[in-house]
């Protein structure tokens, strides 16, 4: 399995004791360990049944120039059919980050923290490419 820190070494035989991502070397482990996301991924999330998300999640403040923050069904289907997106979602660390963001009490702050992780930036760039490509047509 590929190292989920450097994404270069395909022989990653070590696993983080906190969030269980795979890494290939001491250098990658130290880089990952210093990341704030490693600790955040260890947070236990209460099921929605116990604490409804509408009672705990704070609204995200959008800028004045944000006219629409919803995606059409067509764009959502293109994202779901994208081989690049599906390949990125095979990464367990990325899936854990997305789940944490989805249930976050402070999504804007946590999104900024997630943007320091290369795999998350790659995922967001791929989504934006699909959305922007649709807007140009």
TrEMBL record:
Annotated HIT-type domain residues: 3-38
Signal peptide: none
Keyword Translocase: no
One Pfam family from the record: ZNHIT3_C
Keyword annotations from UniProtKB, A to Z: Metal-binding, Zinc, Zinc-finger
CDD domains attached to this UniProt entry: zf-HIT_ZNHIT2-3 (cd23024)
A GO molecular function held by the record: zinc ion binding
Keyword Glycoprotein belongs to the record: no
SUPFAM superfamilies xrefs: HIT/MYND zinc finger-like
Protein name, per record: HIT-type domain-containing protein
Origin species: Adineta steineri
Lineage of the organism: Eukaryota, Metazoa, Spiralia, Gnathifera, Rotifera
């Amino acid at each position: 399995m590929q190292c989920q820190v450097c994404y270069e070494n395909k022989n990653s035989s070590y696993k983080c004791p906190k969030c269980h991502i795979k890494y290939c070397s001491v250098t990658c482990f130290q880089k990952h360990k210093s990341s704030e996301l490693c600790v955040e991924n260890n947070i236990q999330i209460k099921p929605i049944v116990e604490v409804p998300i509408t009672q705990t999640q704070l609204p995200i403040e959008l800028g004045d120039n944000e006219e629409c923050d919803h995606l059409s069904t067509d764009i959502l289907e293109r994202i779901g059919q994208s081989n690049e997106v599906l390949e990125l979602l095979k990464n367990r660390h990325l899936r854990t980050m997305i789940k944490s963001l989805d249930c976050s009490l402070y999504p804007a702050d946590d999104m900024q923290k997630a943007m320091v992780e290369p795999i998350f930036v790659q995922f967001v760039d791929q989504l934006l490419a699909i959305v922007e490509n649709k807007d140009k047509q």
